[in-house]
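Hi C.,

You asked whether I'd gotten around to modeling the 341-residue construct. I have! Everything is below, sequence then structure, no commentary in between.
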Amino acid sequence: MAVVKANAYGHGAVEISRSLIRQGIARLAVVSLDEGIALRQAGITVPIVVLGPLFPNQIDDLFANRLTPVISDVAIIPALAERAATLLAPYSIHLKIETGMGRLGLATDESIDLLVMRKLPSCLHLEGLMTHFADADGESNNQTHHQLTIFTRVLTTLAAHDIKVPLIHAANSGGAVRFPDAQFSLVRPGIMLYGYHTLPKTAAAPDLKPVLTLKTCIAQLRTVPVGGTVSYNATFVAKRTTRVAILPIGYADGYNRHLSNRGEVLVQGRRAKVIGLVCMDMVMVDVTDIPGVAVGDDVILIGSQGEDEITATDLAAWTGTIPYDILCSIGPRVPRLYRNA
């Protein structure tokens, strides 16, 4: 089940979903009702699981768009069942068990009581049972093993009462790689679909290739004399005559302001430093040591050029965050262009 929430981690949910379906992916996951509806409106017909919370006022839209909810709170079940009872066949749902994430989910005793005591209305079909790991990419395996133990205990109890659930899933990207026992009948890859991981160095990581290139071009070139400043608040003061390239992209597009005077880009296959504060709509870089630079030249912010590469992991390291944050932050006004493999 491919996770395409958050606009497919910034890559564009509709086109990414279509590409995954062409490659044989038969089920998608989003986090919100609106994300699921957007995929349906784009003509995507495969099952779509909504991982996030469901509210009573969303139930009609959920059914109208044939979306599969993940139930994390028993309080929503009566309203869901009331709507499902009007259908000719039971409506599929997944239940989420809280095993240690401390977020959404039913308590283990609560879930066992609901299922073993046959309290789930017959108009609802339990298609899936899931949990979510809190530390699958951490240095220690202890918490994940603890969560697996709790989740497996629930599964064992259900099996003892002859309760069969078609789809059992726990593993996110890191979990699918590091914990084979957590693969069950379904896995939920997210960040790894896009070529990144956050596994510790002690774990054997798969050979991944980033999907996305983020690029812009040089809009203007100017020369700043010794003592001249660049961008707001004069945080960059030229110590030499400096050739500056202005790039038409900024923090409104997702290029983090914390990259000010810290980030690097690729121009003609060589690294150029970000100088001055990143603006809402523009970034300035020092191209003094790169000869022949011209207006219109491609500039790579994420991706490869020549023999060098800058990744979302690099940007994450420069800003004290994770690749997820970098990719998901790429704004909607940045055009997404897609190439077939």
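If it helps when you're writing up: The chain has a mean pLDDT of 96.

Thanks,
B.
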